[in-house]
Write a structure and sequence with these properties.
Layout: E1 6-11, H1 12-22, H2 37-53, E2 57-61, H3 68-73, H4 86-101, E3 106-107, H5 114-127, E4 131-135, E5 149-154, E6 161-164, H6 166-173, H7 180-188, H8 203-213, H9 216-221, H10 228-236, H11 238-248, H12 270-280, H13 283-297, H14 306-312, H15 319-322, H16 332-335
């Protein structure tokens, strides 16, 4: 295994929603009447990543207030989304408190989506010699994949993870370069984000166009080769196509900074985490948490090489727990507790 430093960036809302819907048929409601499904699902996923990978650097990225730039470009961007479920609104402050007690940095920037925060940090970390793993099931992140940036995608619950590098993205989207995923998403649109795309163009046609013309712009330069209704539709909707491509592009210039010291994994405040878990009545999760960090403390990861074990050893610095919560807009308690439908 390479001794290249590794950064894991977690797409918070993607895993929170995933956790919530995993329990939708049998919600986890405690004796106080709190629906803890989203908290439990998210924490199980996070602990799973820590146990499997023993990352040396880790952060959890949240949206705050939606994407100002995209809404300015296209007022209907994400306007089709349902109101955020109440259980998720309740869950977010708890999750942030747990992360704070675990000394895991929370990255959030008003007016930007987590995608853009993750994209910006991934590219900054790459320049500093890191491998970055973006923990998310969201296919949009495939556009960011490079030699040192990977998607770390949760499969079905209990099914582990799959890593998407360049080869996996090429195969999945039938492209030569992961950047063409932007053209793919722009052509076919994205119903979940309300990105319109080109009328009449679905997944198969988008892949065909990319194979033939390479990009959205390449398609428009060769409209004369198209026939019938498709030619008419593409010709009439060039502006919409270019707008859709812009909306699908993850921003890489969010005003956040990757300072490796602030992202170092270090020892959690075990008592503080236990107190929150007890309040939420998480017995099994408490056991899982204690096992995860007991194993880390004793270096009980026999399957890794001794070099990797040394690299993954938790750092007992106070930096990660002390400074990063206020790096991007105040204390974590103020940072991102709004979960309006616009923010996800």
């Amino acid at each position: 295994m390479s001794d290249q430093k590794r950064l894991f960036l977690v797409d918070a809302y993607a895993l929170i929603f995933r956790g919530y819907y995993a329990f939708i048929k049998n919600p986890r409601i405690n004796s106080k009447g709190i629906d803890t499904s989203a908290i439990m699902g998210f924490m199980n996923s996070l602990l799973d990543v820590i146990k499997r990978e023993r990352p040396d650097h880790l952060a959890v990225c949240f949206d705050k207030g939606g994407s100002t730039d995209r809404v300015e470009m296209f007022e209907a961007y994400k306007a089709n989304r349902d109101e955020t479920p109440e259980a998720i609104k309740v869950a977010v402050p708890y999750i942030q408190e747990i992360l704070k007690a675990m000394h895991i940095p929370i990255m959030v920037k008003e007016g930007y989506e987590a995608d853009d925060v993750i994209g910006t940090l991934s590219k900054q970390a790459e320049k500093q010699g890191y491998q970055t793993f973006m923990v998310t099931p969201d296919k949009d992140f495939a556009q960011l994949v490079s030699e040192n940036i990977f998607m770390y995608r949760p499969k079905s619950f209990g099914g582990g993870y799959e890593t998407w590098g360049i080869a996996e993205v090429q195969k999945k989207f039938e492209v030569e370069d992961p950047l063409q995923v932007i053209d793919f998403l722009g052509m076919m649109g994205d119903a979940s984000d309300n990105i319109p795309g080109l009328p009449g163009v679905g997944e198969k046609t988008a892949k065909k166009f990319l194979k033939a013309y390479g990009s959205m712009e390449g398609l428009f330069e060769n409209i004369h080769e198209l026939k019938g209704k498709m030619k008419e539709k593409v010709e009439a909707n060039q502006e919409l196509g270019l707008l859709s491509k812009k909306l699908a592009t993850i921003m890489l210039d969010v005003p956040v900074k990757f300072d490796e010291k602030d992202f170092e994994m270090c020892d959690p405040d075990i008592e503080a985490v236990k107190t929150i878990f007890q309040d939420l009545e998480f017995r099994r999760l408490t056991e899982n948490f204690l096992k995860t960090f007991a194993a880390e403390d004793t270096q009980a990861t026999a399957e890794t090489t001794s070099k990797t074990e040394e690299k993954a050893k938790p750092k007992t610095t106070s930096t990660a727990g002390a400074g990063q919560f206020s790096l991007f807009g105040g204390d974590v308690n103020e940072a991102d507790t709004e979960t309006s439908s616009a923010s996800h």
